[in-house]
Write a structure and sequence with these properties.
With 194 residues, the chain is mainly alpha-helical. It is 73% helix and 4% strand.
């Protein structure tokens, strides 16, 4: 009975986990970010371009692989055996922790870069906390942790929305041309159904 209840709660969490993957991936899919500042140096533009084009994408593999494991577990129609998946989910959570360590190692020299990265890091920490809630919920048959995970994922999306807004603001102020798959969503009004 407890396993059936947990599986039903997981269905509710599926949408939130899928949204985690979508919101996290949009930032690293920026295909072309160019600096248009003329001949004068602009440390803000240089730092932001480096963060978006080099630093963040260079460490994305651990994040992407972790999120894939959680998404595979929650894949619609999949009859996931919690006991079988638990070691995989724990490994994925550990891989995501390594990603956070790498993310924390990215340095900034400007206030704008620091603020931008703070939003990005906040989002990642909330994603890790959601993963932790899911793993602990499975281990302890505690469905309240799935509600907590869902809340954390919503908060993570809000932080990523702030990252995107800040990136657009910095780009405009520093003549950085953003193009490609940059996605702007008002996460404050988004719901799981969207």
């Amino acid at each position: 009975m407890k396993k059936r209840l947990i599986k039903k709660r997981f269905v509710i969490a599926v949408i939130a986990v899928m949204m985690l993957a979508l919101s996290a991936c949009s930032k690293d899919d920026v295909k072309d970010v160019t600096e248009a500042v003329g001949e004068k140096e602009n440390p803000v533009a240089e730092e932001v371009v480096n963060l978006v084009m080099n630093e963040i994408p260079a460490i994305a593999a651990d994040r992407n692989s972790s999120i894939k494991v959680f998404n595979d577990y929650f894949k619609e129609g999949k009859n996931a055996d919690s006991e079988e998946w638990l070691p995989k989910l724990k490994d994925a959570k550990e891989t995501f922790s390594k990603y956070i360590t790498k993310l924390d190692a990215i340095g900034t020299t400007t206030d704008e870069g620091a603020e931008l990265m703070q939003h990005y890091r906040n989002s990642a920490y909330l994603q890790l906390a959601a993963m932790d809630d899911i793993v602990n919920g499975i281990e302890n048959y505690d469905t309240s942790l799935f509600d907590s995970a869902s809340t954390r994922l919503s908060d993570s999306k809000a932080e990523m929305g702030e990252y995107e807004r800040k990136l657009a603001e910095i780009a405009k102020a520093n003549n950085i041309n953003l193009s490609g798959s940059f996605i702007y969503v008002d996460y404050n009004t988004a719901t799981d159904a969207e």
